[in-house]
Amino acid sequence: MTSFIQKIAFLSFLxxxxxxxxxxxxxxIPGFDEQIVIDGSIETGTPAIIFLSNSxxxxxxxxxxxxxxxxxxxxxxxxxxxxxxxTLTEICTDNLPAGFESIAAAFFxxxxxxxxxxxxxxxxxxxxxxxxxxxxxxxxxxxxxxYTSSTKIENPTALDNLFWREQVNLPGYGFSWAxxxxxxVMGDAYRWEVKNISDGSFSKPFQPFTDDRFYNxxxxxxxxxxxxxxxxxxxxxxxxxxxKLGDTIVVKFSKLGKKEYQFFEKKYNQIFSGGNPFATPTNxxxxxxGGALGIWAGFSPWYDTLxxxx
Amino acid sequence: MKLFPLFFSFFFTFLSFSQTKYTLSGYITDxxxxxxxxxxxxFIPSINQGTVSNNxxxxxxxVPSGTYQVEFRTGVxxxxxxxxxLTKNLVYNLEIGADAVQNLNEVVINGxxxxxxxxxxxxxxELEMENIKTLPAFMGExxxxxxxxxxxxxxxxxxxxxxxxxxxxxxxxNLVLLDEAVVYNAAHLFGFFSxxxxxAVKSVSLTKGGMPANFGGRLSSVLEVNxxxxxxxxxxxxxxxxxxSSRLTxxxxxVKNKGSFIISGRRTYIDVLAKALIPDTSxxxxxxxxxxxxxxxxxxxxxKKDRVFLSGYYGKxxxxxxxxxSDFGVQMPWxxxxxxxxxxxxxxxxxxxxxxxxxxxxxxQFISNQDQFRFGLTSGVRDIGSKLxxxxxxxxxxxxxxxxxxxxHTFTPSSVSAQSDSVVFDTGSPQQLFSHEEALYFLDEFDVxxxxxxNVGLRYSMYQQVGPFTRYIKGGIGSQDTAINYAPGSxxxxxxxxxxxxxxxxxxxxxxxxxxxxxxNYQYVHLTSxxxxxxxxxxxxxxxxxxxxQTGWQGSVGxxxxxxxxxxxxxxxxxxxxxxxxxxxKEGALPGDNINDNTDNLLVYGKxxxxxxxxxxxxxxxxxxxxxxYTWSKTxxxxxxxxxxxxxxxxxxRRHDLSIVGTYKLNDRWTFSSAFIFATGNTLTLPTSWYVQxxxxxxxxxxxxxxxxxxxxxxxISATWYDKxxxxxxDEVTGKQIQVKKKFRQNWAFSVYNVYNRANPFFLFVDQDGxxxxxDFKLAVKQVSLFPIIPSVTWNFEF
Lengths: 310, 799
Hints:
The structure holds two protein chains of two kinds.
Chain A: H1 2-17, E1 21-24, E2 36-43, E3 47-54, E4 56-57, H2 64-68, E5 76-80, E6 85-87, E7 89-92, H3 101-108, H4 112-115, E8 121-129, E9 135-142, E10 145-152, E11 161-167, E12 170-181, E13 189-196, E14 209-211, E15 219-224, H5 228-231, E16 243-244, E17 248-256, H6 258-273, E18 293-307
Parallel strand pairs in A: 2-18
Antiparallel strand pairs in A: 2-3, 3-8, 5-6, 5-9, 7-8, 9-10, 11-12, 12-15, 12-16, 13-14, 13-17, 17-18
Helix pairs in contact in A: 1-6
Chain B: H1 3-13, E1 21-30, E2 41-44, E3 49-52, E4 58-64, E5 66-73, E6 80-86, E7 90-91, E8 94-96, H2 115-118, E9 124-128, H3 129-132, H4 144-148, E10 154-156, E11 164-166, E12 174-178, E13 181-182, E14 187-188, E15 193-194, E16 201-207, E17 221-227, E18 236-241, E19 245-255, E20 259-268, H5 270-277, E21 288-301, E22 306-323, E23 328-346, E24 351-370, E25 373-395, E26 398-420, E27 423-424, E28 431-447, E29 452-466, E30 469-473, E31 482-486, E32 491-507, E33 513-523, E34 525-528, E35 539-542, E36 550-563, E37 568-585, E38 603-619, E39 624-638, E40 648-649, E41 656-665, E42 670-679, E43 683-684, E44 687-693, E45 696-701, E46 707-708, E47 712-722, E48 726-730, E49 737-741, E50 745-753, E51 763-769, E52 778-785, E53 790-798
Parallel strand pairs in B: 1-7, 1-8, 12-17
Antiparallel strand pairs in B: 1-4, 2-3, 2-5, 5-6, 9-16, 10-11, 12-13, 14-15, 16-17, 18-19, 18-53, 19-20, 20-21, 21-22, 22-23, 23-24, 24-25, 25-26, 26-27, 26-28, 28-29, 29-32, 30-31, 32-33, 33-36, 34-35, 36-37, 37-38, 38-39, 39-40, 39-41, 41-42, 42-47, 43-46, 44-45, 47-50, 48-49, 50-53, 51-52
């Protein structure tokens, strides 16, 4: 459905593009109120990682230094799985503890060599990693205010099949395809990520999240584009989005909860259509209590490898 | 209920007039083409009594026995005076202006002279197409709705948009009627052009306050568009070739002086231009857009007492987009089909009846294909209805109307289909909602004395939502949804209520008048919109067991005065409007959220109010005509579930709205016009802050409609050149040169839209460019403007 909105927005812009023009304006937008932003996640087998920052005025600078200097230090962050309560350690990418490089690289989607030159700071659970079926409670205390949330790592859903199908009009290139059998219980939600087998970090396609509103309990096939190809400047435009015959990729197909999905659904809806007049202005619903923006999400990944051959 | 004694005391006062009176009645038609003349004033100066012909040209006037000089006044021709013997009932049909040459350059006596101050009508404006056609036209397309938007108290939804807001009400609160059939979407080309082809339209009337009891079903206004009936004397062809479309109209008698027809068509060329610009080898071949519409009307006089009219409209917009490279295609057709069959019958010279059967069908579709995935969405509304209206003229002091109407609504808020190859996705059953809407009404317009006049009415409306229907009850996270199924025809919910209407005029000694009006209305249908601008994707939705009918009341008071022998009309009106059960989507709702759900589960309900003052100065006759309208207004909304329950301005809340419209007829050959508009900018919701999640920059929006766009202002000008009406010919008998009327007439209409090229805001958005971690990221608020200076020329002809 988000795809439908994208298309409507795209077509509408296309029509107006025939006659319209735009210019930058400085107009009074009242009502800015700084809020804490909590961006946290935990996956099966990995520690919890929490980023804390503040929201910025719409006219605030957006350069790299403003972003890097925007992280909040000195907060007290704890994560509990009901048995263990871990107080998270604040670490920065330019001073990572041994063994955290690949986790941080995967989290940021950046190569380690670029990451260590940036000052991205996060709170990490050294003494606790995600386990399937457990619920994780987050508590953040900063400036005498407390923010809380909880998330669950669901049972993963395996793909029935993963395969490559060559495009009819583009020999040697094609999308990745998967077959899934959704459970009969309404409310399942999934995230798709992928990486080349030799890469360290996963990439997300244009629309990485989906839920079973349309296909609850059904078995069907679907295709996903190659997100890495869009960053690769050596690939010609006509081949972008496709996997090449012989590519080997790792797919990470993660299950997440319904509330968490609502955050990501609205987030991607805003990314694709935010700001244009054909979409209703949408604030992204947080699952964090206490007045914070952001998300605390548990993911339950299932991995498979695909060799792109017919 | 306290209104009843008062109401019926007015109703029965006419019974007390017992002296011998005779009735003068008949039809007024245009001598040139046989079209009925609406609003012709029939006036007897010696007894200071008069009446006005109704929408079908019928009039009735009962006066004491005698011989009278009777004046027949229209807005187009000079006064015609007849000496009529009223010592018995007299049926007098008049073909007015049969011998006159309609010369708009000439100063004619205004037929509606004094109407501004005399009538009980408040907030009502009537426009003749002949006058509208000389005003500046956007891209050369004469557009009645764009002219309506120049009136005080009326504002457009956006630049070029067809939707209009009347006195702070929403665009769905306007009852748009084409020959008495409801038009649900009056727009072509995403709202930039109206569905009303100017060649097929005869007159337009807007009632924005003091709605009389014979109208209902909407809170804010009634826009009546009457189609031409066709020339019943001779065949005639008119047409025009413009920048984006062409028009052709054929009219003529079915049987001379008894019946006529008119058929009028219009089509745009945008798709043809696109085809020329996009070669067949292009991946975008097959993309394009066009709209067309067709108007048809026939009438036939069955007898002296019976006449039938058949009106039809069919129009469609088709947008298509193709990208063969990505195997992606979209088809987006939408359109209206409208039909009305009317039967006029005279039971007596005092009792006139009109029976109407109407059908309306509006449908919007979106179909997209990508690879093996196919997605379809359909929404629409279909009405089948009938109206029975009586006009009773017991004496000169009373004009009574009563009647009933009925509509069976079928709404399809959304019907979604999706499939991937052979797998059909579960998109729920198509949502269709069925309902009956009925109303009874009675009104009496009467004179208490020469100074005081009332129009008192009462309307009783009823509405029933019926099955088949499935009510989904959402279980929330972690619990199952449930559903209640209603059988076909079963009653789900019933609403009903009285709608009192009252307007009065108090004539002051200096011939100025004070008027006041009050109207209470029910509205059983709603337009739900996810976007900040009107689009065909907006969905019409009926009242249900969950979505209550909108209710509203409006009170207004005005002072009306004419100057310089009625050449200048002025008025000042103050109004206050209250509205309840208004609907909006929940914050964050998406169109697809109603899959396996009811649309009304996504809605929230609230109230609104609007108040303002309108100033209007109009020059009605002479070489120079036009008007200045200024409105100061405020309109706000309060929804418990939106904007944290705080009051917020409506998106079309405009503090100031000014229109200056002028037409100057230089001579027989040239007419010049201009229109200037100034309006406070619309409100909108923009993000107040940004934040980062997973390296994505996200926006956080502030209070609803808390940002205001820059003011809107624009000047349009036009010039129309007419060829000579006569040519010289040698008289075969006398051999002298004589003037004869030319059979083929033509004119060229030149228009310039947005003369000083003002970049008016259409909308604002926050633009993101670059990547945050690459150091080249930029966030900027941008304003999109649609139309720069646009010159256009249209060639019009008739023969």
